[in-house]
Structure to design on (1216 residues):
């Protein structure tokens, strides 16, 4: 099944996600939606890293008998670290948003800018 | 194995350990956090002094963390530039920690103190890590570490608007770091390595640098966002002006410089000057953006009434000088740019410390209210004057020398850049001398004769003065101020000391 | 013993002395203020000629001591002037003013003895800052503004100079400050930098703007140092430059014209400085040995009598608090000593024989005559007449005589009178024994000032002027207005610039509205299209534009609080821009 897809499909998906993320951050006024946009944005980069590491027909990078071709394990490590960082960022941003809402009773970024 | 070989990692580890110990110590006794933080910052400073000396003597240090050889393990790469930067960061970091004691007591609630000191050490440690690492992905991680601590520190005082400033900073800077990660992916895709030296060797063997340029562009823009290169500076004024003063110092004097450093690393170490010569794809736009930043940053600063905001915009202008020097990539301009990192760090840190001292003692933030402060806080104000003069670039302060080198380098490229540098100095003279004039001679006319009465400007009655005339800030705040002011003056005369580090650094970067 | 201690760099003596001033109080400080110039003078006497105090400074050679017969006369007079100025100002309690004045003296000495561009630039920058502080010391709004304009103007000049220095360094590889010849760009940049210092029109407005705003004592210092340093620099670097002759001659007349119509006493004197410096600039331009001698001699004499002249209105200001001529008059009865001392300065500047102005001014005019520059000769003579008219006749007449306005006055403090007396004595002394002046000039002097011909010519000219003044004295009475000079531009430009900076968005919007309205009007006019709607729209736009402008001037609408969305859009845009550059530029191999 997976072999039917064009090989560079992941890259297209990645670019699409990237643009969706940017669009969300630019257009949406809600602070929470901006965080979502940021998450989509960083996910697209993770997808890029993962798809980069993929080799057609490669096995998971666990050493096993008789397997010659592995997918590249290093990007996975990068992505894991990246996800951790993104998680930290997201949680901190959400805490900020909660506090902003407590203080200003709004999450509309345009209203907040005028303060 | 000798302990001295481990100094590069010790510089970083000390602070990270301190960052973990601070909350633990806070559980037991909150008072312990401060001495702990000072101790770890001091140790880290001493280690970086030793490293700088040994780099100058023995050349580049390559340290393999955990004994893993690159390209598998993480490598710390300490060359003169990173040792120089590390010294600046750890020194000003130390001063900021020292300064925090009395300042921060009035700004944040007591129960947040452990968190504050922990974050403070984390941000300095993160910066030092970013400076010393020789691994592109590790650079990203360290950047994230100090960035997240910075977001937290901006909002720690919970003042009006600080949460929004922190949020803005977070979102915008995270876009930057995501760009960095993206480009790390590109570079890994092309070269299959993350080690900087390794990458540069592999890149020079490559035929088509198309993807590589993509990576470079994203990398430089990511770091340009971090270093607030105009017009990517939009997060800076809010974050830098709202943060507590020691944090403003760290952000304005150090964090954006680490961004600039990372640009130098990615352009000159990762890609190498040889590859760039045939392209100019990054350096030319960067120089133009930097020139715009010098002019517009200064113009914005002129219009500000809040002193910290004014200083923040001035930082936008000065990061322009630094990146202009780097973008022009000639020996003189690079020397000027890197030397200016030191001068701006000293000067701007001193100015933010002074602004903080004034804020702490009198509650004054508005420039117009600085009238006659010279009588009340003479030492602080003399320091302010010296630092401001250095940033304007008047001899014999250190700011002049770096601008002189920059100007020489700029003219070798084009007269436009020379004009930009001189005009930028002129504009910065406008806003700094406005403040200096108010400090020493500012007296509303109708107040004639009676100097210490409450002044009334623009219909606002200000605080009544207290009986004691001289109200200098406490010693923990005054000493960093004095040291920095002396530094920014003396390095104008003893230029050979910083230049003895900068020159080898530049030679190494330009591959000469 | 004394040979072991001395000599030290004169600049260091004053600058270190200035930093010690705040530590001293009362009587001790007064002694200290007078002591420093005396030590400096002795020091100068022991200063051997030659080039020394050279330092290697990160690849540049700094020369702090180039003592030769060109720089030494300036050194002498600066130190003497420092003594006189300190004596005049000794009663002032503010230490900031003394510090600024001493640093100004020190920096001027440093600039005069500097042998390379880097240290020259250093001292010129210090001079700028310290002079501005002297103006700020007046502590009132107009003085602050004037000081600020002074600062910016000189930083501007300094920037051009620095640009010139950098170009010079790049093309020659050294920073030695000496004779400049050729047709390079750096030459012009450096020349403009020096012309700003020497207040040559159109770069002169800082002088007439700032000097009258200084304190009574500060202006005495101001008048002596900056322009004369400029003259020294021109003499050193550009002797014999054709354009300077004309600039100088025009300057001499220009200053006189404005001085004649000026109302503020010290502003009149400021214009008269421009006129007098014009002589020196012209002499530097002539460039013959005699002309150079004349330029330096005139600079020395000028410092003395101009200080004396500034001391007079300074004393009046000190006593009465008034500056405008239309507000003064009839002070002779109360201040006779001040008047007579002032008159010594007046006749000196007019070049009356047996006063120092005569011995130097005739030298310049004669050398112009010898060069065959007839027009210059006439212009300079004319300026000399004008000088007599405004400084020696008009100013004292309206200040000390004319209408008695019943101002309560008395003689100024004793130290001021002593200082004035001493200066007046020096003016006379040099006038009678010109040899003492001629001996320190760089070239041997074979010029005899007191020939019957010259004396008679001078006296005849002055007598006619006196007669003219007596007949026309009501016509040239100062008007209580500000005469329009080129400084109008930047006086207005400053606030306009600030206003523009504050809110570019509103400004552009207002311009846009105005432009739209103009187009509508144009449309109506061109096509005779009398549509009432169009007219209405245009008028509405005009009103809207005006409102916007008012709004802009009142509240700073922060442009900088951009939304996150916009910032991210900017980031994306920049990335796209870079990528486009990569694709379309010549960058792709």
């Amino acid at each position: 099944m997976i072999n039917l897809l064009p090989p560079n499909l992941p890259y297209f998906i990645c670019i699409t996600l990237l643009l969706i993320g940017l669009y969300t951050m630019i257009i949406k006024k809600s602070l929470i939606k901006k965080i979502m946009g940021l998450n989509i944005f960083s996910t697209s980069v993770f997808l890029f890293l993962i798809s980069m590491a993929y080799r057609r027909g490669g096995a998971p990078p666990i050493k096993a008998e008789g397997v010659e071709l592995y997918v590249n394990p290093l990007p996975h490590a990068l992505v894991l670290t990246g996800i951790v960082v993104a998680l930290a960022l997201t949680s901190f941003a959400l805490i900020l948003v909660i506090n902003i809402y407590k203080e200003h009773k709004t999450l509309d970024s345009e209203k907040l800018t005028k303060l | 194995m000798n302990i001295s070989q481990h100094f590069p990692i010790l510089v970083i580890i000390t602070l990270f350990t301190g960052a973990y110990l601070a909350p633990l110590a806070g559980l037991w006794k909150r008072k312990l956090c401060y001495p702990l933080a000072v101790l770890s910052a001091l140790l880290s400073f001493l280690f970086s002094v030793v490293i700088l000396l040994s780099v100058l003597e023995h050349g580049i240090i390559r340290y393999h963390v955990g004994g893993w050889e690159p390209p598998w393990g993480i490598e710390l790469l300490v060359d003169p530039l990173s040792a120089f930067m590390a010294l600046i960061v750890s020194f000003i970091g130390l001063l900021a920690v020292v300064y925090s004691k009395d300042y921060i007591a009035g700004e944040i609630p007591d129960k947040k103190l452990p968190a504050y000191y922990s974050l403070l050490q984390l941000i300095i440690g993160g910066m030092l890590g970013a400076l010393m690492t020789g691994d592109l992905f590790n650079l990203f991680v360290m950047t994230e570490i100090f960035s997240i601590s910075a977001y937290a520190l901006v909002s720690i005082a919970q003042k009006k608007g600080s949460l929004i400033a922190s949020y803005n900073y977070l979102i915008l800077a995270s876009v930057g770091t995501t760009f960095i990660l993206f480009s790390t992916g590109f570079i890994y895709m092309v070269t299959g390595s993350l080690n900087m030296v390794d990458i540069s060797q592999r890149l020079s063997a490559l035929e088509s640098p198309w993807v590589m340029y993509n990576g470079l562009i994203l990398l430089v823009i990511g770091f340009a966002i971090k270093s607030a290169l105009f017009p990517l500076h939009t997060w800076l004024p809010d974050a830098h002006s709202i943060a507590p003063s020691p944090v403003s110092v760290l952000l304005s004097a150090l964090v954006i410089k680490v961004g600039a450093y990372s640009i130098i690393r990615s352009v000159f170490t990762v890609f190498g000057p040889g590859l760039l010569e045939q392209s100019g794809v990054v350096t030319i736009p960067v120089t133009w953006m930097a020139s715009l930043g010098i002019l517009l940053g200064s113009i914005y600063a002129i219009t500000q009434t809040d002193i910290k905001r004014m200083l923040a915009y001035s930082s936008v202008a000065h990061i322009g000088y630094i990146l202009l020097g780097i973008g022009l990539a000639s020996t003189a301009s690079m020397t000027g740019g890197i030397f200016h990192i030191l001068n701006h760090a000293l000067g701007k840190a001193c100015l933010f410390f002074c602004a903080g001292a004034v804020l702490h003692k009198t509650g004054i933030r508005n420039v117009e209210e600085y009238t006659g402060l010279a009588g009340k806080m003479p030492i602080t104000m003399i320091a302010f004057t010296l630092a401001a003069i250095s940033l304007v670039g008047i001899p014999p302060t250190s700011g002049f020398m770096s601008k002189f080198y920059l100007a020489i380098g700029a003219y070798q490229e084009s007269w436009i850049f020379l004009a930009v540098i001189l005009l930028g100095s002129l504009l910065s003279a406008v806003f700094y001398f406005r403040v200096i004039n108010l400090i020493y001679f500012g007296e509303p006319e109708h107040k004639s004769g009676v100097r210490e009465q409450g002044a009334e400007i623009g219909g606002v009655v200000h605080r009544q003065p207290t009986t004691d005339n001289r109200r200098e800030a406490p010693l923990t705040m005054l000493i960093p101020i004095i040291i920095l002011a002396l530094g920014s003056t003396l390095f104008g005369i003893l230029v050979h000391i910083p230049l003895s580090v900068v020159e080898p650094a530049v030679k190494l970067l330009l591959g000469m | 013993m004394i040979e072991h201690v001395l000599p030290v760099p004169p600049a260091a003596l004053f600058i270190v002395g200035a930093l010690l001033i705040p530590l001293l109080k009362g009587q001790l400080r007064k002694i200290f203020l007078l002591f420093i110039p005396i030590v400096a003078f002795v020091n100068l006497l022991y200063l051997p000629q030659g080039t020394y105090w050279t330092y290697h400074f990160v690849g540049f050679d700094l020369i702090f001591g180039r003592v030769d017969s060109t720089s030494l006369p300036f050194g002498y007079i600066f130190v003497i002037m420092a003594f006189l100025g300190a004596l005049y100002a000794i009663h002032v309690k503010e230490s900031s003013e003394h510090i600024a004045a001493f640093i100004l003296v020190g920096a001027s000495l440093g600039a005069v003895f500097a042998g390379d561009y880097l240290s020259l630039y250093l001292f010129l920058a210090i001079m700028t800052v310290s002079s501005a502080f002297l103006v700020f010391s007046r502590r009132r709004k107009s003085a602050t503004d004037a000081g600020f304009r002074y600062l910016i103007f000189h930083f501007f000049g300094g920037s051009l100079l620095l640009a010139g220095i950098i170009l010079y360094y790049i093309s020659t590889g050294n920073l030695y400050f000496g004779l400049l010849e050729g047709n390079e760009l750096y030459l012009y940049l450096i020349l403009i930098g020096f012309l700003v210092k020497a207040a040559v029109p159109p770069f002169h407005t800082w002088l007439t703007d700032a000097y009258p705003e200084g304190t009574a004592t500060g202006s005495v210092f101001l008048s002596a140092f900056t322009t004369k340093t400029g003259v020294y620099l021109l003499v050193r670097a550009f002797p014999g430059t054709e354009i300077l002759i004309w600039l100088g001659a025009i300057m001499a007349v220009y200053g006189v014209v404005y001085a004649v119509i000026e109302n503020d006493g010290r502003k009149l004197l400021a214009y008269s400085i421009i006129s007098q410096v014009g002589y020196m600039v012209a002499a530097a331009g002539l460039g013959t040995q005699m002309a150079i001698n004349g330029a330096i001699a005139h600079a020395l004499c000028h410092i003395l009598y101009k200080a004396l002249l500034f001391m007079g209105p300074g004393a009046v200001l000190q006593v009465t608090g008034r500056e405008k001529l239309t507000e003064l008059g009839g002070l002779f009865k109360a201040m006779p000593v001040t008047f007579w001392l002032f008159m010594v300065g007046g006749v000196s500047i007019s070049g009356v024989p047996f006063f120092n102005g005569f011995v130097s001014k005739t030298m310049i005019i004669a050398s112009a005559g010898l060069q065959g520059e007839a027009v210059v000769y006439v212009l300079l003579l004319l300026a000399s007449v004008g000088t007599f008219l405004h400084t020696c006749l008009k100013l004292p007449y309206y200040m000390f005589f004319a209408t008695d306005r019943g101002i309560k006055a008395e003689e100024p403090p004793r130290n001021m009178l002593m200082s004035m007396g001493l200066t007046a004595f020096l003016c006379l002394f040099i006038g009678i024994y010109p040899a003492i002046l001629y001996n320190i000039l760089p070239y041997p002097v074979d010029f005899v000032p007191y020939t019957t011909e010259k004396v008679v010519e001078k006296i005849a000219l002055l007598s006619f002027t006196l007669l003219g003044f007596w007949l026309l004295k009501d016509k040239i009475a100062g008007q209580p207005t500000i005469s329009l000079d080129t400084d109008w531009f930047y006086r207005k430009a400053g606030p306009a610039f600030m206003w523009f900076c504050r809110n570019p968005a509103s400004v552009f919007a207002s311009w846009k509205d105005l432009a739209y309205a103009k187009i509508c009007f144009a449309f109506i006019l061109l096509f005779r299209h009398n549509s009432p709607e169009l007219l209405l729209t245009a008028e509405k736009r005009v009103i809207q534009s005006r409102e916007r402008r008012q709004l802009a001037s009142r509240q700073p609408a922060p442009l900088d609080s951009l939304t996150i969305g916009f910032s991210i859009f900017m980031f994306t845009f920049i990335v796209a821009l870079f990528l486009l550059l990569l694709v379309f530029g010549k960058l792709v191999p």
Summary: Chain A touches chain B through 29 residues (CB under 8 Å). The helical segments of chain A are 9-27, 31-53, 73-104, 109-113. The CA atoms of residues 31 and 65 of chain A lie 51 Å apart. The longest helix of chain A spans residues 73-104.
